[in-house]
Amino acid sequence: MRGSIKGMKRAGLLMAAVAMPLGAGALATDLEVTHWWTSGGEAAAVAEFAKAFDATGNKWVDGAIAGSGGTARPIMISRITGGDPMAATQFNHGRQAEELVEAGLMRDLTDVAEAGNWKDVVRPSSLLDSCTLDGRIYCVPVNIHSQQWLWLSNAAFEKAGVPVPSNWEEYAAAAPKLQEAGIIPLAMGQQPWQTTLAFQVLLVALAGPDAYTAVFGGKDAELAGGEELAKVFEAASAARDMAKDSNVQNWNDATSMVITGKAAGQIMGDWAQGEFQVAGQVAGEDYTCLPGLGVNEVIQTGGDAFYFPKVDDAEVTAAQAELASVMISPETQVAFNLKKGSLPVRGDVDLDAANDCMKKGLDILAKGNIIQAPDQLLSADDLTQVNDLFVEFFNDPSISAETAQSRFASIISNAS
Amino acid sequence: MDKVADLNNNSLSAQGDAGDRSVSEGPRGEKPKRVLTRRNIILYGTLIVVALYYLLPLYVMVVTSLKGMPEIRLGNIFSPPVEVTFAPWVKAWSEACTGLNCEGLSRGFWNSVRILVPSVVLSIAIASVNGYALANWRFKGAELFFTILIVGAFIPYQVMIYPIVIMLREIGLYGSLTGLVLVHTVFGMPILTLLFRNYFASVPEELFKAARVDGAGFWAIYFRIMLPMSLPIFVVAIILQVTGIWNDFLFGVIYTKPDLYPMTVQLNNIVNSTQGVKEYNVNMAATILTGLVPLCVYFVSGKLFVRGIAAGAVKG
Amino acid sequence: MAVAKRPFRWHRNLSAKVAAIPMIATAGIVFVGGTAWTVLYSFTSSKLLPKEKFVGLAQYERLWSSNKWLISIENLAIYGALSLVFAMVVGFLLAALLDRKIRFEDTFRTIFLYPFALSFIVTGLAWQWILNPDFGVQNVVRSMGFENFNFDPLYNPDIVIYGVLIAGLWHETGLIMCLMLAGLRGIDEDIWKASRVDGIPVWKTYVFIVIPMMRGIFITALVLIASGIIKVYDLIVAQTGGGPGIASEVPAKYVYDAMFLSQNLGQGFAASTMMLLSVVIVVVPWAYLEFGGKSRRG
């Protein structure tokens, strides 16, 4: 079936079937869907899913809980183990839900995936790999959020009298001038995940995607402690100096510093773009985005996926299948991702309405320059340890690059 | 010596003036000779300074909630709004979207009330009777369970999430309002029981004995003597429970379903989103709005902070 | 025990026992049961879901070799000691001031108490702003001409825990004040009259007569504050997220992060078991002294 025309046809048929109520068996079924998309833009994006699903004659019952990890997760797990699961629930792509699948609490979606020919339409295919356990598919990837971005304030560089850099080297070299002009070179929110994000983005840019995959994916402790990464840690140490006057916690407060020109740049995921947009800034004119820090133009394929807990009710099971195929259908993918500001998981859809930065991302995606996100590669436990290390490193100048590197290598060598 | 006399004088005069609400703030009263004493300056001065410390964050929150986002981005948190807007308040109450529901905080309001009332009543009723039994009708073994209860007060709630999920599942109350009310009652019990036990223990013994001589039993003494004498401590218990339960997010969301979600779920959804654009003005307005119910309870119940009921009861 | 002094009639005690059934059930089933469950699973390698894969003391070894846990304990000790002392003292002083028959008592009481009503998620943000060196108090004082004024408690790892304390006290002292006020209101007016007649200074009346009479209230306040301190989590998350670096981590946050962020239940349970153990070590001797054989009524 792989890649065959027959497969495409079947997918088309399924889409058609999905677009209308499925005859006798499909009475309107209420499906409770848990997710953590609650900000204005996110809610609008979710509304697209709900609209598409309601159009099948079923009803989307919204169970939004903001705050991904710490807040939503215990709720999801309690509900699933309490024997009263929601019908569908969001997780990040990757290893977070692995155990729930292993425990047999999640529904096998392989039949839906085959009917929808996901293997061919999902791009990059690694997204589907993250949903797969022992050859069976357990989740629907719905979007791609990439973290590899450097956001720069054009006004800040103008004020400092240096051209807007086109890569990390130039940017780091401009730091003294920026400081002289009273501008904080690098804005950085001091939450653990943000510091790890900055580090791994530096790692991909400076040591290359292969080194990144070998360290995070292959758990290559030797490489992690070696020469090649030493220079990444040096760069991280330089970034620490550049960010030493940045006194904010939240990522969007840091973004706000870039928007107002108080800071020259920020390393942050593509969701930062929403803040620029809301502030009325235009990509290319007011701010510049550099994917992969302008060095290695790759993007990570992290993002969100939906899982469907196992339920006894046949009606619910049928509706779950419908929801899964609605979420990945081309129309929904376009509508959802435009609102969400993320990239679609299908290669066969058009995103004309996308803005400059998003188009850059799509371009890189089309070229296949992709790597997996840390939470696709590391277990939550290991990732938290990495987060703890980097938040400590970026806040405590007394920790040398060498010390940090050896601690990092030891976490990697113990990683499961 | 003369300090006491001075104090005596003043407290009497303050009492005399209590009805006169037209007098403006503190020491600047109509009768400066009597009011502007050193004692009053220190007293009111301290109170006002402390009050400022308490009000500072509220000021920041209110001011922020009345600004538009562009103004907030400029980053002067203390400056009053250049252009006052109530849009964030409207949005927080009735427009903010979470998922499909664009009804803001108003959506969960009645659910919160439905959770609050039975939980507060049940937890206080049970704990006050517990405390009364422990203080006045001790029986063997009571201390053991009470000690366990006190240790229980120190357990972080999060640790108990999964065991309680299992317990509720086993008794078939998982996901129901009753289950949630039980959970609130259980977690309110340690502190409340302690509160009542220690308060009842300080009630004059003569009262209790007199009632016993009159032939009153367990419940009669509780309702006719203990309850009316303990209004201030009931107020404290109400303050504790109303605040705790109204602001509870974790239990409300873990032990119920979306149609029963309390208002704090919407609050969390408004203020706690991780990746989208953050609207600080709406966040602040939503927080103040959510806090209004406990605040009203504080203000109204404050009238029950009355002195001298115990003394009156002894004499009457 | 104490009842033995009175004419013992079993059916009266029976109604007390019946009334105490909810307490016994809660203590026995929920707290003992839940705790035993937790302790049991702290010896397993449970990750996202509780599983009976026993690994001995491995979780405890990892716990005590974790820098984050050690810092958490240290922070809790500093924060706990200061918070306890300040909350008690300030709470009592405010209550005593309000009890001096002042005007606008309602207003002042509500002002001191209102922080308790507001959830920490956002008030933490307000404090974060106020204490932020770039747009908070430091900035304001500097712009008044004191260029060298430094006040950045949340951004300096050495003093961050004191910065957190500022907001912590702001939040909880109002409640302690109310509790103390309720206690003061329970003191018989005649005692004040008597002490005035005897010419005893006010402060002496408080220290030597009123406070000893409020022993029960003080113990309640102590447990209330102490249990709050052990469980302190929201405050830290809202204000510093444990930062800068890991300088303001606390044990409850360690537990929570281990359970839900790291998806390492065993580790979280091990940490909570250690917390509970230390509570038991403190509370049980106290309970023994409090109840141990003494026949004290009131």
From TrEMBL, chain B:
Question: Would you identify the family this protein belongs to, as annotated?
Answer: Belongs to the binding-protein-dependent transport system permease family.
Location of this chain's protein in the cell: Cell membrane
Top-level lineage group: Bacteria
Q: Does the keyword Nucleus apply?
A: no
Please list the residue ranges that the record marks as compositionally biased, kind Basic and acidic residues: 18-31
Which keywords describe this protein according to UniProt? Membrane, Transmembrane, Transmembrane helix, Transport
Coiled coil segments of this chain: none
Task: Check the record and name the Pfam families matching this protein.
Answer: BPD_transp_1
Tell me the PROSITE patterns matching this sequence. Answer: ABC_TM1
Which residue windows are transmembrane per the record?
41-62, 115-135, 144-165, 171-196, 217-240, 282-300
The protein's topology relative to the membrane is: Multi-pass membrane protein
For this UniProt entry, what is the primary localization, expressed as one broad class? membrane
Question: Which InterPro entries does this entry report, sorted A to Z?
Answer: MetI-like (IPR000515), MetI-like_sf (IPR035906)
SUPFAM superfamilies documented for this protein: MetI-like
**Know the name of this protein?**
Carbohydrate ABC transporter permease
Q: Which residues form the ABC transmembrane type-1 domain?
A: 109-301
From TrEMBL, chain C:
* Location relative to the cell: Cell membrane
**GO cellular component terms attached to this protein's record:** plasma membrane
Residues covered by the ABC transmembrane type-1 domain: 73-288
What keywords appear on the UniProt entry?
Cell membrane, Membrane, Transmembrane, Transmembrane helix, Transport
Supply the InterPro entries for this chain: ABC_transporter_permease (IPR051393), MetI-like (IPR000515), MetI-like_sf (IPR035906)
Membrane topology, as annotated, equals: Multi-pass membrane protein
Q: Which residues cross the membrane?
A: 21-43, 76-98, 110-130, 159-184, 205-230, 269-289
Quick one: a GO biological-process term for this protein? transmembrane transport
The protein's superkingdom reads Bacteria
SUPFAM superfamilies in the record: MetI-like
The entry assigns this protein to a family as follows:
Belongs to the binding-protein-dependent transport system permease family.
Q: Supply the name of the protein.
A: Sugar ABC transporter permease
State the species of origin. Roseibium polysiphoniae
